[in-house]
Give the backbone structure.
Amino acid sequence: MRRWGRSLGIALRLLPFLVAFLRDRRRWVVFGRPRGLGYERHRRRAQRLTATIARLGPTFIKLAQVFGARADILREPYLSAISSLQDRVPPDPPEEIEAVIAEELGRGVEELFEAFEREPVAAASLGQVHRARLAGRDVAVKVLRPDVEEIVALDLEISFRILYVLNVLFRNHHVKALTNVVREFSARVRVEMDFREEARHMELFQTHFADHPRVVAPVAVEGMVRRRVLVMEWVDGSRVDTLAPRFAAGGLRFDDLMQTLTEIYLRMLLVEGLLHADPHPGNILVDDEGRVVLLDWGMVVQLRPATRDQIIRVALAAAREDVDGIINGMYELGMIDPDISRTEIRDAAAEILGIIDRARELGQQRVQDMVTEIMDTFYTWPLMLPRELVYFFRAAALLEGIGLRYDPAFNGLQVSARVVGRMRGELLTVTAREPVEMARNIWDDARSAITGVRDLIRRADREELRMRVHPRDLFQVERFLSLQIRRIQLSLFAATMALITAVVYLAFPSWWVILGGFIAALLLFGFAFLIPTHLLENPLRHARGLGEEGWEE
């Protein structure tokens, strides 16, 4: 009963927005021209959507924060509105929190700690943090909210059922990307709700960044790490968005801080392969010594060396305006659906390069416009961001926002270029792409290309050149013809129904008979004429693989 009630509540809240988005594409949902709504109406709708998501609870708040970086799913102003959604909810009663601590650690807070503040210093959707004193030092006690695991599991089950319907009805890259995000989130959030994993992530980060004194993470207290409770050292510091007084006093330099933050995230992505996946101002502090402190290590993405190498190759291809190199890298990163033609993707890559070239010519004033245009390109074309880049883009957007907060003329691209210049040697070492090896590979590629062209010319001279059609192309043709035959069959069935109605009318001359039969035949004919082609297939084929993976114990 609870499942049905929750499902109905979610559907009633989200259905109006789904219908509105569909009408934006086609005025009458299945046919018609796109609606030309102004930016202001979209902005007001984005605000209503954000407020609705906030009321749906912790699962949808966390999920919306991921969507806030997915320009391939959402576009402005929805992207900005949802990314601004704050993960702050009222705290649970102290008695319930203390009961969780006692259950996990085996003793009450009076026995465990010398002092325990019942009022939390932070309360988010999944957990809350209390300050306490242990063995003469301050510690932070992070506690998972009671029953939050059951709530998240139920919401994800409902979300997968909704996605099943969307995959059946609407086949486009936005729905595919949406499905991938929810599937990825379902795995990530389960890890985030296990604080033993968070402690492991902090230890892993401290190992990787042991030689970098400008960045630190809290240290977990040994013996006090459980699935629902994590006790760690208390770290004092200023939030990264409240540093104006320290900049004004001269105790902290803005340029040094922005270069440090940029280097930290580039190093995590491209060198260490360990990316802090929940960046927001509340999770980034600067202590009295000027060190950057990264908090909340529940969400972490670990990158394979091959993925890091592919990301660097795409970046280098973009720098030298190599469209084919960009496309090859996109395919390797899974950004392109294999069913999409290479010609279509070439146009998208060329559009992105054109945007970058215009930004170079117009200078700093157009940096923000360039970012917006690139995001619109991801939304318009069938491109899907890989999860590693999603979280990195979230961090990049955060750093850009922090920079502009303190300096309206801040240029994040220039800061990144300086940092990459300093890290060039490390990047080349990590990817094993030393200049001599790169030159050797270029020579091998050129030699292979020359040999291939020569062989092609010889075959043409001997009239041995043949064209081979890929089996997938034949399958697409067969599929199209098969579906159109089904459409014709539906139309014939409608015509047959009209004939049967006429025969029945001759036997039983009643206007209700002929009126009802002809209306039913007309509706069926209209259905056969208007139904999207993909709905003529087996619906299970489109939703295959959707499910609540990982929630079954």
User: Anything to note?
Assistant: The first strand starts at residue 115 and ends at 116. The two ends are 22 Å apart (CA to CA).
